[in-house]
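Quick one: structure for this chain?
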Amino acid sequence: MKLLKKIFSRFSIVALTIILLFLIFVTAIVAAVVFTYFGIVKAFPNSELYVSAGLTVLSWLIVVITVLHAANRDMVPETKIPWILCIVGLNIFGAVIYIMFSSHKPSRRSRKLYTALNAQAAPFEGRAVSKEMLKNSAGEWAQVFEALSTASPSAVVYKGTKTQYFPSGETFLEAFLADLERAEKYIFLEYFIIERGACWNSILEVLERKVKEGVEVRVMYDDIGCMSKIHMYYHRTLRKKGIDCVKFNPFVPVVTNVHNNRDHRKIAVIDGKVGYTGGLNLADEYINAVHPFGHWKDAAVRLEGEGVKSLLLLFLRLYGMQTRRAEDFSEYVPASYEDFGEQGFVQPYGDGPAAMYGAHLAEDVYINVINAATEKLWITTPYLIIDYRMREALVLAAKRGVDVRILTPHIPDKKVPFALTRSNYLALIKGGVKVYEYTPGFVHAKLFLADSKVATIGTVNLDYRSFLFHFEDAVLLYGAQAVGELEEDLEATWKISALQTEDDAKKSVVWRWICEIAKIFAPLF
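Got it. Here's what it folds into:
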């Protein structure tokens, strides 16, 4: 029975659909070439040589033109080499693959709607902190916040917002359930993964009760992210309970690269006044109720006050894009916010495909934080699959005397990303970066801490998927309470993690070379 369930599972059906579509696509191209060739040969019996030469010249002409297009295209440099190798290696078929799959641009309709939703949110995103106040309080770090505001006007800097850092899923869930219980108007949840179990069941119990009390509840989860976690029509199950639920970017059996644009965000907003984000999905491994990869190390941040407004608007925009409707945001933005008197600043921000956001915001924020650090730069990430400019920024920071440390998992959740992660150790270690592995298990937290003053807490991994394809979110903080709490957590974490050496990084020469080859194509996936 278990075998039959696996064979007829949704994941298997989707995988089979993709394979069949690929085979149909290949067969159509081969058939077109063969029929064309033999049709001409049959009509002109003595023209085999000319037809063969003509087809060869035509195919290579298309290849050359496609290669020139790829080489001169405005795209991430690391993606150009694998595409050129693909085009040259597979000839005309490679050119067709490039034309069909090299763009991750959402549909024109989606981009138009997103522009309209941005206009809908704009009246609520005025500047909350003056440049003078920011510079007087944050000094040189003000430039990092201003750079983000310039690149993304929706990334507003707020003061007086209360912050709290959670070093584990267990501590997060306890506070989260308490906040859900206090909801009076609405609860909005946007998560990459939800999975039935102790974590989600405890949350769902509260949501159902709140619906009966008249609280509006919305849930948006990523379709592919939840593919092996819940059944295909789970959104309908939640709707029957009174919860307005949608799947983000549902999978359809069509050959398109837009399926790569996943909603990797983790956002919760309660009455517009309390918000959460971080690495935590709503599933049991995140709260260590189960241990598939040893101890699961994760993190979240809680905001209370005006800074929650940006998380609310991030949710409403993407939710509106999925439901294809623009609603009145003023119904959900509180008329006023309590000032908690906290001296620091918070700047929540979102990122997504460059066609919508105009830049690779998440990576740019990381690069700016790295370049501005003068004393310490502590990072945690589940995946370390980085491009050249990220690696060089980290190495240059270490060379100018910054204490650069990166924490990665010791027990992987996925073998290939883990191998690619380890393949980046050697160059970083030689450059003076200290790389640690979290020996108790798997680290899923996505954290940056710089000079004990600035931090980012969010959903952005150090890999190409987060930087190029996914919708992501995070909070940039300066001098906030959560920054100090994050530093205390990392101080304790280093003590139970293993520092990697050059000898560790050089293990398994053959496997390392396989990873080096795989890294060439990593930016495409």
